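lol ok so funny story. i was supposed to be doing the assay writeup but got distracted and ended up predicting the structure for this chain instead. priorities right. anyway since i did it might as well share w the group, maybe its usefull for someone
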Amino acid sequence: MQTPNVIASDLDGTLLGPDHQLTERTRKALVAAREHGFAIVAVTARTPYGVANLPGLMELVDTAICANGAIFCQPEGGDIRILRSIPLPVARKVSETLTELLPGAAFAVETGTGIVGEGPYQELVNSPNWDFADSLEGVFDRAERVVKIKLYHPERTGDDMAAAVAGADLSELDMCHWGDFGMLDFNAPGVNKATGLEIWCTEHGYGPEDVVAFGDMPNDAPMLSWAGRSYAVGDAHPETLAAATDRAKSNAEDGVAQVIEGLIEAARSVA
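and the output, tada:
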C-alpha cells in the first residue's frame, strides 16, 4: 500500500490524550509529519472555537473540519466556511419529532459561531460561546442559523437513543451518536466526516488512497470507511471497528502518534 499524503484524525478520544490535550509525543509526531510533507487535517464534532481553544493544535494542522464535516476552519486567522446548514423549518419539524420519541432530552443548536442550548446543557459546558434558553422554542428563536442539532439525554445511551429514533421521518438528516454517552448529532443531509474530508481532499488534489484516518466513535465510521487506510483506536465502538482497516493503541498510549512515527519511517525508507 502506498505511503499516504494526508493524515486525518478525530480529536477527542483519538488524537488528544485523556485530558483532551495534545501530549508531547503526539505534538512531536505532528511536527515531524509536517516536516516530511504530510498534510494534517483535524476532523471533529467540535465547533471551530472548540478547536481553536486547544493549546498548540491549530499551528500543526492544515485545516480543521468541524461540526462533523459541516464547517471548515482555517488555522491562519480562524476563518470559517460553512458547507451546508439545516433550513430552520426542517430543524423545527425534526426537533418536534425527536421530542416525541425521546421525552426528557435537551436540545441545542450549533450556529457556526456559537451554540444555543436548553437549560440542562449548563451542567455539561462552561463556555462563553454558549447561550441558554428555557425551552426548545427559545433555542430556535435565538439561533440565526442551524448548522447542527444536538440532543442530550442524561439517562440514556447514544446507542439506545439511536435505536429509539430509527425509522422516524427525520428529513434525511445525517445522524451520529456516541455509544455509551447519551447524545445524538444531526447535520444536513449528506454532511458527515467523510463528505467533509472528501471535499477538502478533492480541492487539494488528493483521493481516498492518499489518506490515512483515525477515529474511535460511530461518527468517525464514515471517514474511516472512505479513507484508503484507517485506524480504530483503543476500545473503539463496534461500528468504528467494523469501518476501519487497521487498529491502533488507545489515546492514553499515544496510539495515533505511534502510527505516524511508523509512517515517517516508511517515508524515509522510500525517499
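The first strand starts at residue 6 and ends at 9. The domain at 88-187 is CATH 3.30.1240.10 (Hypothetical Protein, Haloacid Dehalogenase-like Hydrolase; Chain: A; domain 2).
back to the writeup now i swear
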